[in-house]
Amino acid sequence: MYWGVDVGSTYTKICGINEKKELVDMSVIPTIVNQDEIVKKYLKDKDIKMLVSTGYGRHMIEETFSCLVISEIKAHAKGAYFFNNDAQMVIDLGGQDSKVILLDKSGGFVDFKMNDKCAAGTGKFLEIAANRMGLNLDEFSKIGFDANKKLSISSMCAVFAESEVVSLIAKRESASNICYAVHESIASRLASMANKFACKSEVILFTGGGALDSFLVSLLSEKLEKTILPSKYPQLTGAIGAALCGYEIYQEV
Amino acid sequence: MSVEEHRKLLSEINVDVDRHAKMMNMGLESYKAQFMSQKNRPEAMKYFDWFMSEIQGQRIAEINELRKQKKPSVGAFCIFVPEEIIVGAGGACFGLCGGSPATIADAETELPRNICPLIKSAHGFKLQRTCAYTQSSDFIYGETTCEAKKKTWEILNKHHPVHVMNIPHMKRDKDLKMWKEEIIEFKEHIEEVTGKKLSLEEMLEGTRIINEKRKALLRLDSLRGLNPEVMPITGKDALFVTQMGFLDDPKRYTQKVNELCDELEKRVEDKISVFEKDTPRLMILGTPIAPPNWKLHTAVESSGGAIINEESCIGHRYYKDNVDIDNIKNEDDLMSELMKRYSEVDCACFTPNTPRIDKILKMYKDRQADGVIYYTLSFCHTYNIESFLVTEALEAAGIPCLVIESDYSPEDAGQIKTRVEAFLESISFKKKANKLKSKS
């Protein structure tokens, strides 16, 4: 089995593929302290031909398992391309990062953009806003479709944006409309990053936890005027990419 | 430990010694961790390691010895300072502390948060009295290269004398004429400090010394960057050597850099490289990298890349041009030549600034680099905005480019590393693809 571990800021994703490149094992667990120990426990007694780590905590896993390491960008490019080899652009919205990756025809990544140190436009911001409204992410995503007013949030900083949300609440704006505003602000950021690349492909793949948010998907496709296709297992894309990398390297050597 | 040895002197120049000692310790620890742990370093780096250990000790004693002899002592944050004149007067010209996050909170009591970290850090050092260089300067050289600096001088001047030189933002004849007048005025200011006239010969001597220093740095630049087969020194070490050029005595420094270059030349002959074969070679473009800001170099060189050049104020921009002194007959000639040399500096404060882009493209080709990182400090509007034009030209030339905006805080180190690693992966991927293409 070939394993990919993606230690993200919020969740750790583990997946295993077999000799036929079939996904046979996958798991999403919250990232906490000593994450390497948890991964170790998970992989105990499992057959490991190759292990590749990626994500924020990749170097911690590297130290513990002395395994190979790849960047999230490469991992997401690989994972997304595996399920859909027409797309030449991948948008990834993770807990603390958002990125846009440009692929060539063979799935190698050509260029990428990534947010600077700032939580605006990341999954973290969605989470903060949903918490403020007393909703979980799933509920928060759904009510956006009922918005009847196009409110906007203008702050460039997640902390200030949160206070904008608070002031919208104080103005008795409906939860749906606030939800719209929050999603709009994130979609705008992602779209402006994506627009920096002239992307020819009609389909853009969407990965990371953000791709589970159906309202965000619809806003983003509206903005970019393209089909936004959530990847098959959005959250696991990075881990799958890492496992595939391990598979390839194993075949090479 | 040097701070203890020099406690008396540091107190005399009104340094907050206890606080200073704490910061120095942190700086030294960080230096040890990031520099001394590198493998296969050139022997000649020992001098620079020593210099680091005495960075605010021995060197401060030397500067204050000069001051006792009424020689001028000038601190600056910009490479537009005509150091030839200061050195000609027998004095010392040095860069002031401004690369640490530790003083920023203090600076923010007087300055806005959204200006560049270099200015805030520098201002904070003055407020805290923790930079022995700032405390040793007769005056601080200020310039008008950006709005934030221009206005900060007015506030800094409340705490320490500042002499502001008006740097034009265009290079038309009338601007250059004004610039020359500014250099003459600077010279007169130095004469006021020393209380005596400066002779042409003295200024020429100062110019020769600084010309030699720049030549040595240019030699180092070639040795580390021009040969793709052998990279004899890490980018981090070379950066540190360059950074120390702003502090050390110029004659001694020139000698030490040349000794290092001799060793590097030998290494190139013997094919001793500190990087593995095919390590991606990157150039860094953009804003100055003041010590102890080693964040970017550490991220790149711990991710499997090599930095072969800094197109920066602490880098190529600082030493690429020399003052032509062959045909100087009088003081006016020298002032003209100094102005000419300084007007070649392609700082982003100028508009238009196309020579910078031309230089970058040429540098990239000459050094057979594999990619560039455009590094800019947060809120450094000139370099930040100019990154658009530079990356546009780079993209047109098919040069891989990554833009990174950061400040001195450590919390984005992980993100920077991710982006750098991905950038290096994409370069390797392209290299591989090109090889396959040429085979088929």
UniProtKB/TrEMBL annotation, chain A:
InterPro entries: ATPase_BadF (IPR002731), ATPase_NBD (IPR043129), CoA_E_activase_dom (IPR008275), Dehydratase_Activator_Redct (IPR051805). Transmembrane segments: none annotated. Its EC number is 1.3.7.8. It is an enzyme of class 1 (oxidoreductase). Its cofactor is [4Fe-4S] cluster. Keywords: Iron, Iron-sulfur, Metal-binding, Oxidoreductase. It holds the Pfam family BcrAD_BadFG. Residues 4-246 form the ATPase BadF/BadG/BcrA/BcrD type domain. PANTHER family: BIFUNCTIONAL PROTEIN [INCLUDES 2-HYDROXYACYL-COA DEHYDRATASE (N-TER) AND ITS ACTIVATOR DOMAIN (C_TERM), BIFUNCTIONAL PROTEIN [INCLUDES 2-HYDROXYACYL-COA DEHYDRATASE (N-TER) AND ITS ACTIVATOR DOMAIN (C_TERM)-RELATED. This is CoA-substrate-specific enzyme activase.
From TrEMBL, chain B:
Coiled coil: none annotated. InterPro entries: FldB/FldC_alpha/beta, YjiM-like. It comes from the Bacteria. Pfam families: HGD-D (PF06050). Belongs to the FldB/FldC dehydratase alpha/beta subunit family. This is 2-hydroxyglutaryl-CoA dehydratase D-component. It comes from Arcobacter nitrofigilis (strain ATCC 33309 / DSM 7299 / CCUG 15893 / LMG 7604 / NCTC 12251 / CI).
